[in-house]
Amino acid sequence: MSGLLLSLAGVHTHIGAYHILHGVDLTVPRGQLTMLLGRNGAGKTTALRTIMGLWRASAGIVTFDGQDITQLATPQIARLKIAYVPENMGIFADLTVKENVLLAATQASHASDLDGQRLKWIFGLFPAVEKFWDYPAGKLSGGQKQMLAVARAIVEPRELLIVDEPSKGLAPSIVNNMIDAFAQLKAEGVTILLVEQNINFAKRLGDHVAVMDNGRVVHRGSMAAFAEDHALQQSLMGLTL
Amino acid sequence: MTLNRLLSDDLPRSKILTAILLTLFVLLALAPFIAPGVNALSVAAKILIFIVLVASFDLLLGYTGIVSFAHTMFFGIGAYGVAIACSRWGATWLNLGLGIATALVLSVLLALAIGLFSLRVRAIFFAMITLAIASAFQTLASQLSEITGGEDGLNFSLPDMLASGYMYVEQPIFGVSISGRFVTYYILFAAALAMVLALLRIVNSPFGRVLQAIRENEFRAEAIGYRVVMYRTISSVLSALFATMAGVMLALWLRYNGPDTSLSFEIMLDVLLIVVIGGMGTIYGSVIGAVLFVVAQSYLQDLLKLGSDAASGLPWLAALLSPDRWLLWLGVLFVLSVYYFPNGIVGRLRNRAAGL
Predict the structure, then answer these.
(1) Is the CB of residue B293 less than 8 Å from the CB of residue B277?
(2) Who among B213, B228, B281 is closest to A92 (CB)?
């Protein structure tokens, strides 16, 4: 199947008295990696949380695989095989690494029920997950926690992977590992929507780009073209890639 | 391997903790032989009852992160179920079973109603709602005197085989009469053991894993696909069922129940203290906490009397150690234990064993 997997049309989101998203139009093509860029406070994280139903859209439509998911509850959205990796290492610190991974496995209650081949692939992407399998996740370093968060998201095949700033606060060597991991996920045909501030991350991984400013998507196009257009980057983001 | 499975792979993870738990297990298992006196055996029975009550609250507070003040309401429902059935309908096994079943059904319905209507609100409001419900229930129990016996409560008999005067064997064994009282104690012991093992199984199951995830961050748990309200409600219902069974144990032992015996807010505070002192989210903490608390509550006055007599040469010290001040010293003991064991005794022992 080809075409669009996810689309947002005229989405508005209010958080309390604040109007954060002002009519977001965004499309995520199937099997490709879409980068969502923008200055701090542009509304990127709110857009992701609105897709997941964690903030309710006050207007507009979120469509996933042809289905209107705007009014669905978060667990229902997650069960459509949409995995969400929140910013700031969204793991469960009191549980072990294994338990964190198992939480996201709908087909497995115990580690022995997990797909061995897939687990091996994940261990290849993130060796720390295998190394610290029985350790409390709270004891991992920042990079390891981020790897665990992504590993948990892909423990079973997903239709869409939504990741919020996976490189935030990580050392450059770990960022490179993360880039390699997402490149492999891309090669596997996983559709990814990624919010990122890291320049290398965006340039090396993105197929498409959407830039947000003041709660709207102000630019959409190919990542390659955007990476070449320094004037556009400067005008939209106040910096160049 | 079998022990591992029995404990649901949730071993004490500390040699000292293992030794303490084993010692307590042996002492409680042999209590009728070690301390056959009425008072000592009542202390042991109260420990068993509190172990179940506190462990069930640990499922709610320690594993799910729900602060509820209605826990003793379910405790009271269990005790009243037995008391009303045996006093109003007659002391038969059938009536006892019906009383327990009715109490369990009522607890499930109330826990479901509280959970589904209240668990969507923020934690502090949920706590306030449960406080109001528990107070209302206690008032209701006091006022429905025709059913509950009001403030006086209900004295009742149990089926003959559980009566103190019923002798299973004519001659005492190791100096202990094998009476209905003796059998009741071992029913309580077996029930407490079975329920603690069942709770260990629950908290170490995939369901328990989700509860812990919800406790830590409910939004993340939702984003993975878990219906938080449903899981919290199931946890509340399970916890209520175990608390009801603790109430049943209380009624079986005391053969009496009244509002102050099972519904008072004081018991709720005791449960909160015990779970914090023992170690939240451990289940084992309920065992150690209950033993410490009940023993301190039962024998601190005796100990203070000894101290006061010994310090008679120093009037100010003797006055300070007066048995009348036992609540003050109990309070001091708990402040110290919370200060020195912020993760509870079990947490501290496990951290120490892990070199943390």
Answers:
(1) yes
(2) B213
For residue B212, the chain A residues in CB contact (below 8 A) are: 92, 94-95, 99
Q: Is residue B24 domain-resident?
A: no
Residue B347 lies in a domain: no
Alpha carbon distance A167, A30 (integer Å): 23
Contact assessment for residue B259 and residue B325, using Cβ atoms and an 8 Å cutoff: no
HSE, CB side, 13 Å, CA atoms: give it for residue A148.
33
> Chain B residues with CB inside 8 Å of A102's CB?
206, 209
C-alpha–C-alpha distance, residues B214 and B221, integer Å = 6
pLDDT digits (tens, 9 = 90+) for B28-79: 999 999 987 889 999 999 999 999 999 999 999 999 999 999 999 999 999 9
> Is B339 within a domain?
no
Domain of B154 in residue numbering reads as 35-283
pLDDT in tens, B299-336: 988 999 999 999 989 999 999 999 889 889 888 888 88
A15 near B CB under 8 A: no
Residue ranges of alpha helices (H) inside chain B are 2-6, 15-29, 31-34, 38-58, 71-84, 93-118, 123-143, 145-148, 180-203, 206-216, 218-224, 228-254, 259-262, 265-278, 284-310, 315-320, 326-340, 344-353
Q: Which helix or strand (DSSP H or E) is residue B257 part of? A: strand B256-257
DSSP string, B10-22: ----SHHHHHHHH
Mean pLDDT score, B191-214: 97
Per-residue pLDDT tens digits for B79-102: 999 999 999 999 999 999 999 999
Question: What DSSP assignment string belongs to B36-70?
Answer: -SHHHHHHHHHHHHHHHHHHHHHIIIIIT----S-
Contacts of A81 in chain B (CB under 8 A): none
- Which listed CATH number (3.40.50.720, 3.90.1720.10, 3.40.50.300, 3.20.20.70) goes with A1-81+161-241? 3.40.50.300
Asked whether the ipTM of the predicted complex exceeds the cut of 0.85, the reply is yes
CATH number, domain at B128? 1.10.3470
- The pTM assigned to this predicted structure is 0.91
